[in-house]
Amino acid sequence: IRCWSNIPFITVPLSRAHGKSFAHRSELRHAKRIVVKLGSAVVTRGDECGLALGRLASIVEQVSMLQNQGREMMIVTSGAVAFGKQRLRHEILLSQSVRQALHSGQSQLKDMAIPVLEARACAAAGQSGLMALYEAMFTQYSICAAQILVTNLDFHDEQKRRNLNGTLHELLRMNIVPIINTNDAVVPPPEPNSDLQGVNVISVKDNDSLAARLAVEMKTDLLIVLSDVEGLFDSPPGSDDAKLIDIFYPGDQQSVTFGTKSRVGMGGMEAKVKAALWALQGGTSVVIANGTHPKISGHVITDIVEGKKVGTFFSEVKPAGPTVEQQAEMARAGGRTLAALQPEQRAEIIYRLADLLTDQREEILLANKKDLEEAENKGRLALPLLKRLSLSTSKLNSLAIGLRQIAASSQDSVGRVIRRTRIAKDLELEQVTVPIGVLLVIFESRPDCLPQVSALAIASGNGLLLKGGKEAAHSNQMLHHLTQEALSIHGVRDAVQLVNTREEVEDLCRLDKLIDLIIPRGSSQLVRNIQKAAKGIPVMGHSEGICHVYVDTDASVEKVTRIIRDSKCEYPAACNALETLLIHRDLLRTPLFDQIIDMLRVEQVKIHAGPKFASYLTFSPSEVKSLRTEYGDLECCIEVVDSVQEAVEHIHKYGSSHTDVIITENEKTAEFFLQHVDSACVFWNASTRFSDGYRFGLGAEVGISTSRIHARGPVGIEGLLTTKWLLRGDNHVVSDFSEHGSMKYLHESLPLPQRNVS
């Protein structure tokens, strides 16, 4: 805890030996000393006359928050010229209006031309007002700010340089935020020189070079350069093929075409890149990002410091493999080639993968053993997650069987005609199935998920990006290697990519131009986080698996305990395991009820009592904290209902629309339940555990969806397809079908081609 002005705040432990820049974005959260450079386009309004007050207030708030975490923040700001221009224009207009009124004797004024204002005069008039504004804003957060004006000479004169350095260090020691700007009122025009040729040579021509010089002089960890573009593009922003560069490495300048500079300010992007590379060479990490976009400017600085993928990160460490963006592009290209293969060729790839799972069993289990040993040594995983992480010979055999089912059922999945219509004579329309595009599947502690999902993507002709948990790294690497080996038999090795970079899941969810569908496989918290983080990309899945079994008055004694035991105890960590047991009130204190309780005790299932169930008991189990709980372990809730209608209402109120079951011999009651429960899977006299792609005969599943759009329930090949329309005509134009045209619409349904069901 540190205190300043009697206000305590939490500090974060930050220490790092300066000399080398951070290699990865994730390390930026360890930055202690940070320079934030605010470009003219960030600080000024769109009319270049006056300040963008709301944007500036947001930036001050973020800087204050980081300062109060114990970081040392410095700001290099523009804006004095724009602020001064606003003040001088106002003074000139006022002066002209007074003179004109005195001269003409009339209050009505004519249009008055404003002379061109000299930048140095504007800077002189604006510096004091700009600083007063900063002081007022920082005061709201009990932070003191101090102004420092510098020129190029201050860095070339050794005594002045030492004085500047000492002043800045003293201000930082006192928890004061230095606000630095070039002294534009007296600064001479920049002279041509040979700057940027070494660590000790850079001319302060603009605030970009000033920020870089200051960052190196003060041994800062991070320089954030905010401008009016998202970052560095490989060609001028706005051009058709312009792509944002996520990470820029020294030597990449040849691959970039620079455009014009921003609407205001001294330097363009080329100046920023030169300054950034100079700072990087001096040991300071650099990020160039957009500080003007209304959707991100309110958290752009804090996002950068947290290591999120914002703007362009400058790094000296080039990764060995491709970036995730490159992997997504490879997956799309590979997926299109995959979709163009014959169905028999795609099936052949899947059959080959199934064979490799059994042929390479020993190597797979050895890799999995490494993961299990590391997880146990670190003690990070709970027992249910360790079970999910574990592979066995029987699991691999089951996987191989499932993959062969997928191969056999995928013969006509892509390109299947599902509708044919004769629009008019010689004009026929077809609707055919096509792949969705590029899928991103994120999974935790489930290495067996990798070959399942890969097989479904191959069968449906989709490109695939896989992001597995690091706890299964060895298993995933081995299984992905086998998948690519199988894909290689038809030259589509790149269609399935395993993301091994340090990309956070949240960053992957922002790649809306590269990814078409996200499928999370893991905990409810993982799914919720992905649904929240996904920006413009649909997410298929379910956040919770709160499955119910309702025991009706007409339930069979023989069936009840078997179905409940299987639903709860066969695999309690599964998303389709029973979590809430609903029992008809008339069954309380009957032999059947006693059998249910005895069976749960034998299986060591911890029981939580619902409010109504607890009211019937003198000594009840612990009352449930919430009826909307997914335990994922040998625990369940028991609640009492008065009728099948009340059971349905309870499921709709507290369930997750996943899988719900009724146990009864009364067909009328069962049909009411089946028709009225609005869940993805609704069963009669069968375990909740049947809610599974393999058990449904889909071969495998990419997940279970509780969404009401597109796929619902266990999602197999069909759920990974969309459609497109093919229209074949012969010189047809819409004008021929007008009121006085020569053609008429027929809209006749045509028979579909015979499906291959072999």
TrEMBL record:
GO terms classed as biological process: L-proline biosynthetic process
CDD domains hit by this protein: AAK_P5CS_ProBA, ALDH_F18-19_ProA-GPR
Lineage top rank: taxon: Eukaryota
Annotated compartments: Mitochondrion matrix
Residue intervals of the Aldehyde dehydrogenase domain: 323-588
Pathway connected to this protein: Amino-acid biosynthesis; L-proline biosynthesis; L-glutamate 5-semialdehyde from L-glutamate: step 1/2; Amino-acid biosynthesis; L-proline biosynthesis; L-glutamate 5-semialdehyde from L-glutamate: step 2/2
Enzyme Commission number(s) from the entry: 1.2.1.41, 2.7.2.11
Listed GO CC annotations: mitochondrial matrix
Domain Aspartate/glutamate/uridylate kinase, residue spans: 32-290
Keywords, alphabetical: Amino-acid biosynthesis, ATP-binding, Kinase, Mitochondrion, Multifunctional enzyme, NADP, Nucleotide-binding, Oxidoreductase, Proline biosynthesis, Transferase
GO MF annotation list: ATP binding; glutamate 5-kinase activity; glutamate-5-semialdehyde dehydrogenase activity
InterPro entries per UniProt: AceGlu_kinase-like_sf (IPR036393), Ald_DH/histidinol_DH (IPR016161), Ald_DH_C (IPR016163), Ald_DH_N (IPR016162), Aldehyde_DH_dom (IPR015590), Asp/Glu/Uridylate_kinase (IPR001048), G-glutamylP_reductase_CS (IPR020593), G5K_ProBA (IPR041744)
Pfam families to which the protein is assigned, alphabetical: AA_kinase (PF00696), Aldedh (PF00171)
PROSITE patterns referenced in this protein's UniProt entry, alphabetically: GLUTAMATE_5_KINASE, PROA
Catalytic activity line of the entry: L-glutamate 5-semialdehyde + phosphate + NADP(+) = L-glutamyl 5-phosphate + NADPH + H(+); L-glutamate + ATP = L-glutamyl 5-phosphate + ADP
Function summary: Bifunctional enzyme that converts glutamate to glutamate 5-semialdehyde, an intermediate in the biosynthesis of proline, ornithine and arginine.
NCBIfam families listed in its UniProt record: P5CS, PRK00197.1, proA, proB
Similarity-based family: In the N-terminal section; belongs to the glutamate 5-kinase family. In the C-terminal section; belongs to the gamma-glutamyl phosphate reductase family.
Self-association state and partner proteins as the record states: Can form homodimers/multimers.
Protein name, as recorded: Delta-1-pyrroline-5-carboxylate synthase
Organism: Alaudala cheleensis
Primary gene name: Aldh18a1
